Amino acid sequence: MMISTQFLSLPRVTTLSISYPTQQKPVSYTSQKSKFDQCPPISFPAKLTRVLYERYKAGKDGVVVLSCELIDNNGKELQKCVNEYIDDWGLEEGFKTWINEKNTFCSTLVDRIVPGRVRDAEEVKKMEEANGYHDELIDVGEIFGVWIIEGYLQVLKISFHSRKPV
Questions:
Q1: 104 C-beta neighbours (distance < 10 Å), count
Q2: Is the C-alpha dihedral spanning 44, 46, 48, 54 positive or negative?
Q3: Is the dihedral of CA 53, 54, 58, 60 positive or negative?
Q4: Cβ of 32: how many Cβ atoms within 10 Å?
Q5: Residue 130 belongs to what H/E stretch?
Q6: Could you please report the per-residue DSSP string of 68-129?
Q7: Closest to 127 (Cα-Cα) out of 143, 138, 111
Q8: Which of 30, 98, 123, 143 is 20 to 30 A from 40 in CA distance terms?
Q9: Is 31 a residue whose pLDDT tops 60?
Q10: What percent of the chain has pLDDT over 70?
Q11: Do residues 60 and 16 lie in contact, with contact meaning Cβ atoms separated by under 8 Å?
Q12: Cβ atoms within 10 Å of 29's Cβ, excluding its own
C-alpha cells in the first residue's frame, strides 16, 4: 500500500517544532501490527516514527515531543517505542542518531481529576438544562489546573503562543 503524500507532507514543513501526541490508551509498541509502508501505520508510536523519518530525510530540524499518555516517564517510553520501530523496520543508524540527539521527548504530567459519569438523575437534569441539550454521555471534570513538562532549558524557552498550528 502506498503511503499518502498528504500524511507525509507534514514533516517537511519548516515551522513544525512541537508535536502534542495525546492518546486515550497508554503508548504501546506492537511491531506485528504497524508496518513501515502502511498508510498511516496503526499505532501512534509507529505513525510518529514514520513522520519523523520523513522529516529526517527532508533534512529538517528535530522536534520537541510532548507525550501526554497517562504512564510514568511517558516521554522516555515513547522515545523507546520509536527506537524499537527503527530497529524492526531496519531504518538507517543515522536516523536513530538523529532521533536521539536532535529531538527532545519530554515527559508530561497533567493535574486534573475526571471523576466520571454523573449518576444522580437530578444533577444530570440540571446540567442538561444549563447546556440546552440532552447528553447520553454527560461527564464532569476539574478545570485544567497544571501541566508539568520535563525538559531541558531550551524546551522551557519555547513560546507556545507564538507557534501557529500546522
A1: 19
A2: negative
A3: negative
A4: 7
A5: helix 121-131
A6: --SSTTHHHHHHHHHHHHHHHTT--HHHHHHHHHH-EEEEEEEE----EE---HHHHHHHHH
A7: 138
A8: 98
A9: no
A10: 70
A11: yes
A12: 18
What is residue 1's predicted lDDT score, i.e. its pLDDT?
Answer: 39
At position 45, the amino acid (one-letter code) is P
pTM of the model as a whole:
0.69
How far is residue 146's CA from residue 151's CA, in Å, rounded to a whole number?
Answer: 16
Q: Identity (one letter) of the amino acid at 157?
A: K
More confident residue, 99 or 9: 99
pLDDT of residue 143: 74
What value does the mean pLDDT of the chain take?
A: 79
Give the pLDDT band of residue 142 (cuts 50, 70, 90): confident
Amino acid at 56: Y
Cross-sheet strand order for the sheet of 64-67? 18-19, 64-67, 104-111, 146-149
How many CB atoms are located within 10 Å of the residue 98 CB? Answer: 20
